[in-house]
Amino acid sequence: MLKTVLLGTLILGSLSAQARICGETPIGINTERVFAEVVYRSHLELDLVVVRKGAINPKYNVMKIMGGKGFKPNTVPTCDSEQGIAMTWSNDTMANNETQDYDGQTTSYRICEYDVQGNLIVDEVICNFASGD
Question: Where would a tag sit more exposed on the chain, N or C end, judged by fewer CB atoms within 10 A?
Fold first, then answer.
């Protein structure tokens, strides 16, 4: 019983920390074009997972990811910035970016996608918080 109460307190505490740090910014997005989420893998790691949906050809539609560890939703560079991060693409549609820290971290990303004409078609910010040791 005591373990259940302690576990519940820890979960609620981490949820309130995420809400306090990330505010109304979601941990993920799921649109008709892209799925992206900052996954809380452990108390030391946050991973960004990005999946392009449908028949989106990466040769024609350009995707840029901004931000990463240490960024808060209001400090993530805009889509017109040149500060994109390197993503590990496992194929044409799936990518990830891993971050880890021993003292806890806030990780925020801006997902930007441009069509073949260079028009911005996706501009979304996502955020998550991981508590440390």
Answer: N
* pLDDT surpasses 90 at 17: no
Give exposure, 57-95, as e/b (b: 16+ Cβ within 10 Å): eeeebebbbbbbbebbbeebbebeeeeeeeeeeeeeeeb
Looking at residue 60, which CATH number applies to its domain?
2.60.40
> Listing from the earlier edge strand, what are the strands of the sheet with 105-114?
62-69, 105-114, 120-130
Q: What is the total count of domains within the chain?
A: 1
Say if residues 64 and 79 touch (Cβ distance below 8 Å).
yes
CA distance 66 to 127: 12
Three-state SS for 28?
strand
Q: Determine the pLDDT at residue 10.
A: 42
CA distances from 49 to 45, 46, 89, 116 (A): 13, 10, 10, 23
Q: Taking the CA of residue 90 as centre, how many other CA atoms within 13 Å lie in the half-sphere pointing to its CB?
A: 8
Q: What is the residue range of 26's domain? A: 2-130
